[in-house]
Amino acid sequence: MSYNLKEIEKKWQSEWEKTKIFSSTDFSDKAKYYALMMFPYPSGSRLHMGHVRNYVIGDALSRYQRMRGFNVLHPMGWDSFGLPAENAAIKENIHPGNWTKENIKIMTEQLKNLGIGYDWDREITTCEAEYYKWTQWLFLKLYKKQLAYKKKSTVNWCPSCSTVLANEQVVNGICWRCKSEIVQKELEQWFFKITEYAQRLLDDLQELSNWPEKVKLMQENWIGKSKGIEINFVLEDKNILIPVFTTRPDTIYGVTFLALGVDHPLINEIFSIEKNPAIQKFKEEVKSLTLTMRISDQFEKKGLFINKYAINPINKERVPIFLTNYVVMEYGTGAVMGVPAHDQRDFEFVKKYNLPIKVVICPKDKAINADTMLEAYVDTGIQVNSDKFSGSSNVDTIEKISDFIEEKGIGKRKINYKLRDWLISRQRYWGAPIPIIYCPTCGIFTVPEEQLPVLLPEKVDFMPGAISPLAKVSEFVNVSCPKCQGQAKRETDTMDTFVCSSWYYLRFTTPDSKDVPFDNKIVNYWMPVDQYIGGVEHAILHLLYARFITKVLYDLKYLNVQEPFKNLFTQGMVLKDGQVMSKSKGNTVPADDLIEKYGADTVRGFILFAAPPEKDYEWDNHGIEGVSRFINRVIRVVEKFADYPTKIVDINCLPSNEIAKILVKTLHKTIKRVTDDIEKGFHFNTAISSLMEFTNHLYLIENLLDRDLGEELNSYIKESLTTFILLLAPFCPHISEELWKKLGKTGSIFRQNWPKYENSLTTDAQTLIVVQVNGKLKHKLSFSTGETIEIIKNTVLNDIKVKSLIDGKEIKNIIVVPDKLINIVTN
């Protein structure tokens, strides 16, 4: 029989769609399993092998869990707002909505060609009004809870994208999307108060035991909790407090200057900037720098003395105040005490401006001369020049000085976080409008909930500029005040697309709901997501935002869970020429071409087999031929034995036939290996390798014996093949369905139970081997029957007792009689 793989794949894709085999049932008697991939942006590019790897990992897992008896939810949707669509609209002179819909159509067809088993009835698209209505509803809930606010702020501005970016979207001073260099700009912007949840976001990382440690560490570092003390320095002659946060109160006696960020409110309080051109010039110079540059250790430290002094409250010393380019308002209080003897950044600064250095910590065994220091001393040691605290360990002094500061009322212990509030305003068109109205008489109002959604206008000039494109649409901007009915105006910024993706996993549970964003009972049946899969590049942006929104909705009594994703798997990237496969880099390998040549099952099997899924994989398509041969070998062996007359046999018991006995044990070992490989880290590559080994075993049986193997052995081979095809199904689903039917089985293979193994059949029989030294019996060791000579040698020579027997002796020869004895001949 000739197998046309393309026809087989189309046949089963059509059958799956017709029977809705991958549809999910709310409140099933089965245990639920919510498997979710981070949903894609419909970029319009052809799916490449980097995409294929992501989607196939999730599909293989969800098919496996379905066969394990779970009620599986495996949905698909589209993260469809954002800059790519708007930029394409500008470039191609088409509406971003039309561009997006066409791309979704193309990508949907490609995913179906791969045989991905999604519940397409739950499909969502974030740029559709029925979805972003509820993104706006979410904004209203945060606003009511005082977690959404607007303020004037210095923001990260991408000149290329003509919009602001959150701190998380700036990587080493460049835009995370277009790679342009970021500049600083002052604008009125909307923020979500994620800092209110900083401690909970940090604490609850401990509950995520099935998240990669590297992801948890990245979030922990981004949140950046610091325990310290806030000390009130005083502006000389003005009695104005200048709070300074430090984690090193043990160095307070070593302060020789005070450093302020250029945005520090004290500057405007004591100076008229317009009348101080030096200060104005310095501020403008610093504001042209990115946040990343300013806090970098490698960046040149600069300052401007403002002819003012502060009083150190602990010793009453006068210290000069400098504006600096390396202190930022985003961290602490925007004021830093300069301790050059014990901070390398401060040390470099005072060397540049010829300021004094005062040593207050020395090693236990020697003194430090401030005049000869070549770098700051940052290790632990003994306190010196520190009044009554001198002579103590500086580690102990941290708490003692903190106590003293609090007792004197000149400061208090405090916890600070590096995490800043989430900036959500975007000065672009293609996003969810922010549901706010400004009335010159009544003030700021939220759009009444019953008036949602605030729809994006269709006719818009997309060209970005100094103002949002929506600000140019008078029929959108002009609106009646909800209170006085007078002339008012809408907010013309749109929301960051990450707001839409911060709650989409909830909408999948009730995607057609028109009255609520999600049904409480249904969402709490499915949540949390049991397995979330996506790239580690989203460890900070998306995952942190989703955790925050889930906690807010929990506090508002909409959810019963505080964490959205129970298990997280971050797959490795597919590389080509040493770089991540990407259309922008021109190094993609289109999936369509490979599917056309080899079939979807071969492409799926190869990308899973090529490397461990958590590791990056450098593309090399030579191995795909091997997977193609494997699938064809499976087809041939099923073809041979499918029509053989057979009798009923029990493959869970050992048969009398010796060859059948080995076959049954090999089968159970294979079931165990494949099951363990999937359960313990998605090791699909070794799971497929085990299936290949089992196929080799079947061919070995055929080659060793006559063509007619006998009815009993034929029966065991056919029954083993039936189990084998079940194991193959999650990886190569189309051919598995076809061969299942060829073996005389009815119903979809994905409605069958996953095979179980008998532990007793996964272990080999044991043989006691005699250990001799120079022909004399010295020891006995147990080995698996048929163990290799090499393993026997290595095991015996590393045995503690044998090592003591031959210690110091030269081994002349080692004689091994398999399953019987080993004789070590020494001098």
Fold and architecture overview:
The longest helix has 22 residues, at 658-679. The model has no long low-confidence stretch (mean pLDDT 91). The chain is an alpha+beta fold and 827 residues long. Strand 10 and strand 11 (240-246) form a beta hairpin. Strands 10, 11, 12, 13, 14, 15 and 18 form a seven-stranded mixed beta sheet that branches. The chain has a four-stranded parallel beta sheet with strand order 2-1-26-27, with helices on one face. A four-stranded antiparallel beta sheet has the order 6-5-9-19.
Biggest sheet descriptor: 7 strands, mixed
- The fraction of residues assigned to DSSP E strands is 15-25%
Low-confidence stretches: none
- The helix tally amounts to 26
The coarse silhouette is: flat
CA(first)-CA(last) distance = 66 Å
Provide the residue-averaged pLDDT. 91
Helix content: 25-40%
Structure class: alpha+beta
Number of strands: 34
> For the CA atoms, what is the radius of gyration?
34 Å
List the main descriptive attributes of the protein structure presented here.
827 residues; alpha+beta; seven-stranded mixed β-sheet; four-stranded parallel β-sheet; 26 helices; 36% helix
In short:
The chain has 827 residues and is of the alpha+beta class.
Layout: helices, strands, pairs:
Layout: H1 5-19, E1 32-37, H2 49-67, E2 71-73, E3 77-78, H3 83-92, H4 96-113, E4 124-125, H5 129-144, E5 148-158, E6 163-165, E7 170-171, E8 174-175, E9 183-192, H6 198-203, H7 213-223, E10 225-235, E11 240-246, E12 257-261, H8 265-270, H9 277-287, H10 291-295, E13 303-311, E14 318-324, E15 335-338, H11 344-353, E16 361-362, E17 382-383, H12 394-408, E18 411-417, E19 422-423, E20 425-426, E21 436-439, E22 443-446, H13 474-477, E23 478-480, E24 487-490, E25 494-495, H14 497-500, H15 504-507, H16 520-526, E26 531-534, H17 541-555, E27 568-570, E28 574-576, E29 579-580, H18 591-598, H19 600-609, E30 617-618, H20 624-642, H21 658-679, H22 684-704, H23 711-728, H24 733-742, E31 766-773, E32 776-784, H25 789-797, H26 800-805, E33 811-817, E34 821-826
Parallel strand pairs: 1-2, 1-26, 3-4, 12-14, 26-27, 28-30, 31-34
Antiparallel strand pairs: 5-6, 5-9, 7-8, 9-19, 10-11, 10-13, 10-18, 12-15, 13-14, 16-17, 20-25, 21-22, 21-24, 23-24, 28-29, 31-32, 33-34
Helix pairs in contact: 1-24, 3-4, 18-19, 19-20, 20-22, 21-22, 21-23, 22-23, 23-24
